[in-house]
Amino acid sequence: MITLHEVHEQGSEAVKAAVLAFGASHPVDGVEPDAEPNWKWAEKHFTYLIEVIMGTATPPQTGATGAVRRAENAAISFLLTVTNLPNYRCPICVKRRRPLL
Amino acid sequence: MDAERAEHAARLRGLLYLACPDAPATAITAIAEAITEHAEETPQDPVLQAAQLSQPTYAAAQLNLSGADLSGADLTGADLTDADLTGANLAAANLHGANLAAANLHGANLHDARLIDASLCGADLTGAQLHAARLTGAHLHAADLSGADLSGADLISAKLTDANLIRADLIEATLIEADLTGADLTGADLTSANLHGANLAGARLAGAHLHAAHLIGANLSAAKLTDANLTRANLTRAKLSGANLHGASLIGVDLTGADLGADLGADLYRVELSGANLKGADLTDANLKGARFAGVVNMRLPTGATWDSFTKWPDDLAAVVAERSDEVSPGVYRVRGGQSPDRSTVGV
């Protein structure tokens, strides 16, 4: 599955900005908005985001590559969509059951 | 592919709602559709519809969260009035104080969800999974819960007035002090449910399964309990005046101090009460035609009650009843007393 780091490396300027904004919404101390991004946390939540879109953490056996790629692209589109909104919330953070790092 | 696209769109609607709950409902739907439509290409820019997110919200548009994955989400106090949540996954979500009035939750998964003090008035919860959900103090007036799985759910002090609970699964549910006035529980399964102090006045419970249910102090006045299974239920101090118990099974029930006739005699026509404890139970003016009291304990003379040749009295009471009754119509007898001042309390 593609990582947030790879998305940043391969993406356009808009994609890079969206990745940085997503990282910024996961500050190190979990509270202070100006703190350094917790990239480990952000990476984990990006993976969860793809899994939620896919509906499973395990890709389907048939057509797995295509299904994963479409879910990854949808996740990137999601980041691009919400990035310019002030105070948008990481939906995975809103899901209580997801463990905080 | 179409099925996958629809599923991805549903999950994206949920994610977009969680990310920006104040966004216009139409924008969320349009963006989710656009994202899934272009999912084959690696995106470099936002979809055109993304601009709609920052537009002002106008009322009226129905929020479409059907099939969305909102499991475990913190949706405390969320306004989901009239939202389409059919088939949504809300398992273990926190919806404390949320407004879900008139929402469509048909087939939704609310397993272990927290719905404390939530408003679900008029909501469609048909076939919803609410096992072990916490609905303490929730408002469910006129909600449609027919066929819903509420087994083990916490419904303490919930308002379920006029709710549709036909064939609902309420096994081991906790309904202490719940208000079920006028609710339709026809064919519902309330086995071992705790209805201590619940108000079931006028409720329809025909054919309901109430085996071993706790109905201590419950108000069942004028309730329809025809053919209900109340075996081994605890009806201590329950109010059953005016209740219709035609054909119900009350084998082994505890009716200690129950009121079956103080205001309006209960209808116990052809009711099976063998082995029941009737200590202090008031059967004044009750219809006991065809009722079977074989093996009951602590029964006192039911003044004003009507009975017939099919009524099976406990051995030690049969002679006293015959002696103190008058034939009021061919084959129908009435125990003297009742609403008249002469209220016999002869114990046997």
Radius of gyration of chain A, taken over Cα atoms and rounded to an integer in Å: 13 Å
Radius of gyration of chain B equals 27 Å
Please identify the structural class of chain B as seen in this structure.
little secondary structure
Which band does the percent of strand residues of chain B land in?
under 5%
First-last Cα distance of chain B: 76 Å
For the largest beta-sheet of chain B, the strand count, sense and barrel status come to: 3 strands, antiparallel
What is the global morphology of chain A?
globular
Unreliably modeled segments of chain A: none
Tertiary shape of chain B: rod-shaped
Query: What portion of residues of chain A belong to β-strands?
Result: under 5%
For the report, how would you describe the main beta sheet of chain A? none
Please mark out the parts of chain B with pLDDT under 50 across 5 or more consecutive residues, or reply none.
Answer: 340-348
Largest interface: A-B, 34 and 36 residues
Tally of strands of chain A: 0
- What is the tally of helical segments of chain B? 3
Query: N-to-C SSE series of chain A?
Result: HHHHH
Average pLDDT metric of chain A:
86
**Order of strands, widest sheet of chain B:** 1-3-2
User: How many domain modules of chain A?
Assistant: 1
- Please bin the fraction of helical residues of chain B: 10-25%
Summed up, the helix count of chain A is: 5
